[in-house]
Amino acid sequence: MDDLYTFVYRGVLTDESLDKIGRRRRGSLFSEDIAKVREALAFEILDPELVTTARRMAIVYTALHAFENSVRKLVSTLRFRRSFVHHRDELGRFRARFSGYGIEQILAQRS
């Protein structure tokens, strides 16, 4: 068990050290990254009016994307809870049906 604590503690220390030296987190977008992408996609030759319209739509897309994924996460959580409740109820029915056969002692030993 001490090995596990040592391993986890080293991981925490490494994580903090990386943050102190300026590690970039996954999903972070820095201005130099945006500049590189704009340059690679030749934004300067695109119609400025269309780029402005696209930027407005990007805000809408960002909101829709975040909302959709939030709903998916919520549905997954609710499905898990529903499944858990269903299995818990089935176990209760199982215990009630076989209570006279010593099943309670077997289940108590396994818990």
- Poorly predicted runs of 5 or more residues: none
Average predicted confidence as pLDDT? 79
Count of alpha and pi helical runs? 4
The rounded Rg comes to: 27 Å
Instruction: List how many beta strands DSSP finds.
Output: 0
Query: Largest sheet, described in full?
Result: none
Given the helix and strand composition, which structural class is it?
A: mainly alpha
Please report which band the strand proportion falls in: under 5%, 5-15%, 15-25%, 25-35%, 35-45% or over 45%.
Answer: under 5%
Estimated helix fraction: over 70%
Order of helices and strands: HHHH
Q: N-to-C terminal Cα separation, in Å?
A: 21 Å
**Tally of individual domains:** 2
Give the overall form.
Answer: elongated
Could you list some keywords that capture this structure?
111 residues, mainly alpha, 2 domains, elongated
What do you see in this structure?
- With 111 residues, the protein is an all-alpha fold.
- The chain folds into two domains: 1-45; 47-101.
- It has helices at 2-20, 31-40, 48-97, 103-110.
SSE blueprint and pairings:
Layout: H1 2-20, H2 31-40, H3 48-97, H4 103-110
Give me a quick take on this structure.
This protein has 111 residues and is an all-alpha fold. The protein is built from four helices and no strands. The protein has two domains: 1-45; 47-101.
